[in-house]
Structure to design on (536 residues):
């Protein structure tokens, strides 16, 4: 009888499930239309500026630019360039994650190292990555290594800081609980500290990616590697030819690539928050 | 090789334990010359106003802290439950119990089986897959109890574990705790500042003074179990203890 009452109490206690988002099609539409509207508004404003005739010899309208983009998409060159750039992004970011994690783990664990290196990581973060290029070019020459070097320097500090913050903010109550359970050293890290710092780590990854992407594009404009078309090379080539339609088309490609990666990080972040019960709706 | 440990008498002994936090003029005497023996299987409630060092005492027994002087001896394994459940938010209810089993080196299949069993013990059989935030406060606290049991402890330390729950849920958890302790020969040290709760649950109630924390009185609780928190004998003994507690707290107002 007692356990029956308890079960009844449990049933009453549980939250009434929040209204689910409805069917998939409906949710996709709810996600899509504000974005579609925003794009439409931008194109409309652009067309209006174009119609006023401001800088009309250099500023192409959206129609010309978008058809230029369509034409470029038919050629292998654009896809080749996208592949090169994304390859560098993935390699550079992966290196940055690896190095950032190792540095973050060591610094958060070893107090003297933190005193010595902790503030240097933040200092490194404030250094604009473009200021590293002269150094990198002299060191590595005009090579992919120079670009990767700057990506790592730009992104690794954010990733390390994200991990360090996450470790610092592991709730003491959980640490107590974990220690009493008998989790020690490595197992304490594996089962408690690392998962507890995941939200902050993902925030660090996201910020690190933004730095990496900026460093990469800056690098591709500055470090010109022969016979290797990349997004940056296309951009500087079209600038040299004063081909504004192609230039803007490439900028749109850059924007879209950035948005795609950002939404991937956003999805990871939301998944974690949902699992932890940190979303407002439950 | 672990048999020697499990066969040893599981009990807690504090002999002349003092604990001072800080040094010099800012030093706070949390505990002063506290001596106390909890025989195996006994349920001891510690009660006192704020500043009586109840939580300090549990930390010392749990080995999270060292006494300034005196000696703490614990026979067997210790588990601690707090006012907050302290569950890992990234793990399901079952996962939270399994991680405690894993820390003790229990194998994978056995972990699954034991976790399901322990969830049944706290009447949460169907809730293993829920995340902590999907459960109510009382249910979370039961998962925390199951996790404490998963540590296969001989001594269970409880630091106001039901303090944040509503009265009705708390009543039920008292019954649950009675039932669970009865079958396991658990030695329990239960800290609370709810006098009736202490009398409802304890084999004896120990009253501590505040700043410094000293044992000022000890009340055996003779009533048969099952008890009810609203029965006359429980209320009567609670009244006696409350009077003594008030008199003690009143000294600090002068």
């Amino acid at each position: 009888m007692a356990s029956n009452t308890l079960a009844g109490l449990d049933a009453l206690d549980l939250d009434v499930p929040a209204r689910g988002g409805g069917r998939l099609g409906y949710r996709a539409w709810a996600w899509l239309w504000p974005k579609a509207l925003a794009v439409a508004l931008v194109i409309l404003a652009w067309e209006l500026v174009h119609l006023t005739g401001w800088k009309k010899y250099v500023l192409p309208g959206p129609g010309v630019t978008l058809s230029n983009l369509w034409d470029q998409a038919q050629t292998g060159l654009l896809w080749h360039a996208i592949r090169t750039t994304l390859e560098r992004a993935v390699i550079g970011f992966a290196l940055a994650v690896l190095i950032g994690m190792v540095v973050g783990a060591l610094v958060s664990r070893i107090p003297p190292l933190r005193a010595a290196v902790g503030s240097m990581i933040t200092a490194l973060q404030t250094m604009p990555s473009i200021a590293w290029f002269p150094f990198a070019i002299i060191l590595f020459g005009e090579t992919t290594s120079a670009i990767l070097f700057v990506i790592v320097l730009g992104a690794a500090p954010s990733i390390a800081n994200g991990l360090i913050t996450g470790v610092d903010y592991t709730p003491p109550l959980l640490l107590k609980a974990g220690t009493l359970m008998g989790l020690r050293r490595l197992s304490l890290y594996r089962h408690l500290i690392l998962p507890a710092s995941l939200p902050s780590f993902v925030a660090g990854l996201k910020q690190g990616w933004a730095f990496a992407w900026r460093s990469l594009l800056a690098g591709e404009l500055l470090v010109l590697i022969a016979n290797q078309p990349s997004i940056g090379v296309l951009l500087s080539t079209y600038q040299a030819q004063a081909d504004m339609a192609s230039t803007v088309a490439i900028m749109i490609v850059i924007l879209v690539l950035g948005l795609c990666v950002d939404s991937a990080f956003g999805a990871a972040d939301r998944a974690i928050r949902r699992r932890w019960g940190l979303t407002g709706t439950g | 090789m672990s048999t020697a440990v499990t066969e040893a008498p599981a009990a807690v002994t504090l002999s002349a334990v003092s604990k001072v936090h800080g040094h010099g003029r800012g030093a706070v005497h949390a505990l002063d010359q506290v001596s106390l023996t909890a025989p195996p299987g006994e349920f001891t409630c510690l009660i006192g106003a704020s500043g009586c060092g109840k939580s300090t005492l549990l930390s010392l027994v749990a080995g999270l802290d060292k006494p300034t002087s005196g000696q703490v001896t614990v026979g067997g394994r210790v588990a601690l439950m707090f006012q907050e459940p302290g569950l890992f938010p990234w793990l399901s209810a079952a996962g939270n119990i399994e991680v405690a089993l894993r820390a003790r080196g229990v194998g994978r299949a056995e972990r699954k089986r034991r976790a399901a069993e322990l969830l049944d013990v706290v009447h949460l059989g169907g809730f293993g897959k829920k995340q902590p935030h999907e459960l109510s406060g009382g249910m979370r606290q039961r998962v925390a109890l199951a996790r404490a049991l998963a540590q296969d402890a001989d001594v269970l330390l409880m630091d106001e574990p039901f303090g944040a729950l509503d009265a009705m849920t708390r009543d039920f958890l008292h019954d649950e705790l009675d039932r669970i302790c009865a079958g396991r020969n658990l030695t329990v040290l239960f800290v609370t500042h709810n006098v009736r709760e202490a009398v409802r649950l304890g084999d004896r109630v120990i009253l501590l003074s505040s700043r410094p924390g000293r044992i000022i009185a000890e009340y055996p609780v003779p009533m048969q179990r099952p008890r009810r928190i609203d029965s006359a004998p429980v209320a009567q003994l609670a009244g006696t203890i409350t009077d003594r507690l008030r008199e003690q707290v009143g000294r600090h107002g002068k």
Remarks:
- The first strand of chain B starts at residue 12 and ends at 21.
